[in-house]
Amino acid sequence: MKLSVFIFCCLNLLAGCTTQPNTSLYQQLGERAGLEKLTDSFIAQIGNDNQVFHYFEHSNISHFRQGFISHLCSLAEGPCEYKGDSMVAIHTGMNINEKDFNHVVDLLINAMNEQNIPHTVQNKILAKMAPLRGEIIKI
Amino acid sequence: MYIKFLLSMSLLLCSTLSVAATGKLLATPGVSQIEGSAGGGLVPWAQLAGYASEDEWAVNGFCSRADVTDYRLDACGMQLNLFNRVELSYAVQQFDVPALNTEIEQSITGAKVRLYGDIVYSQWPQLSVGVQHKSLEDGTVAKLVGAKNTSGTDVYLAASKLHLGALAGYNWFWNVTTRYSKANQLGLLGYGGANEGSHILLEASSAVFLSRELAVGIEYRQKANNLGLGEQDWRDLFIAWIPNKHMSVTAAYLDLGRIAGVNNQTGWYLSVTGYW
Lengths: 139, 276
Prior knowledge:
A: mainly alpha, B: 2 helices
């Protein structure tokens, strides 16, 4: 009992420290400029990676950049609508496995760390992206 | 002795392998529980040990020590993860009772099969079924305290889920395990007894990740009182540090209640797992 009260208090403390009322996820990610910097870091991470670079080898970087920024913006409920190709259309034929998918998640986390995006904000955008995995891997 | 041999053999084997499994996200395999399965400290979880995804295999080794008021338990073991579908484990426990100058040794062979899901990505929790076959080296003490058998097999069903950003942006993990067991104090005091009741026991864990590398949590493990010695449920408060996909360190404060007639067995737990 004492233990659970203690844990509950700790969690409240955490919540108190990080809740930013009236701040959308889009704003917490630094709005348009923040998403652009994050995407550039992510592209650099992929470019320097031996394990997954081959998936991106034939992509048009500026097309990917625009698509990724607008997709993130729309997932973060920013003032944009993602109008690019569907996740299924983009990834069909790539046959991305679980390991490589998670490796790309690791690279995105590296990019978010590089951009000093707070841990809790990172988790919130990852939570929005995670349900898309089924439309991306093994197709 | 045997386990040291096994561990050094595995180290040797693994040092010759250049490719380690890294297909899961950091910390998502959990750590090693006291009977050798992937889990927390006390409770086996639905995750399979190690960083193998469905195209990989992984080998892990661990050692743990639980030091409470009147007893000490050491456990070392290994796990093999095959394609994130099957986990095979082997562990040896040494239970020291300094007051009686007695040492009880038990070996545990485990298997776990992932039935459904992924703790991060699937809509429903990851679900696994497992067995732990345990056997005492020398059943003298177990028989002395009234146990019916000196070996036994536990069967468990575990469900677990990691909720990304669920607690004010922090990742929240939970696991619930239902176990069928006749074991007395993990089996260290044998199996069954004159006071046997239900063999269905409930176990649960919950943790919050303060960062990618650091989690704090609690565990609960229901215990049966088959021997009529007042065996009590176990609980702990733990902190796990997972700096990379090659190692984890877990420390915990334990409250193991009454053990073999001695009350208030509280103390410390430390566990290290290496992943290849």
